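seq as requested:
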Amino acid sequence: MENGLIFTGRRILVTGATGGIGSAVVRELVQHGATVLAHGRNTDTLEALATETGCETITFNIEEEDSVASALNGIEIWGVVNSAGFGGEIATPMSTDIEVFDRVISVNTRGALLVTKYATTSMVAAGKGGAIVNISSQAALIALWGHISYAASKAALDSITRSSSLELGQYGIRVNSVNPTVVLTDISRDHWTQPHIAGPFLDRMPLGRWATPEEVARPITFLLSDWASMITGVTLPIDGGFTIV
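struct tokens:
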């Protein structure tokens, strides 16, 4: 399987492709021959990514089922990376804003399920198998201060990963999650760069540094590839060892 990382002839949908991790995934997959269908909210950023990489683009509202269904209807897709996300707020159980909680669940959990629902309809019909990778978080695996809404959304996403892998395996479709540590994107930078937050966090991590978008994109590419052909239903920490401590 020498060419296991080659995706020639395979169209892979990447949601949230205008974000730091999503755009890194697009670049990595294009480099390995995939036809990438990049989704995002910011059309200017999306078009710039298309100009840079040659990816195709698609827009839909990930929180509206009719929008997702209409956009994906009739499109042959071999793989999916559910990267669209909303960070929500830093709050305790006592102070959490339930409207924010609802939106975090709507984007991170419900949105990923909607995309999976309509993408796999065409994947099953095509009969060519495929692969899905959901971008979860280390917050789904351990307790983090202030992350009650975000952690709940990602833990639910990991559960969706396991259930989907069970249901879709009969069609040759593999489903996995990756659970990254902090990547300093626009969503996370303000909180995690505060000295009183960053210091104790990095001191606890065996590798002692933040992850880069590329360090998340490469394991995603592996899980999509034929080199991971017997891997399904896993949640893979990409966390510098943080969750083992």
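The chain has a mean pLDDT of 96.
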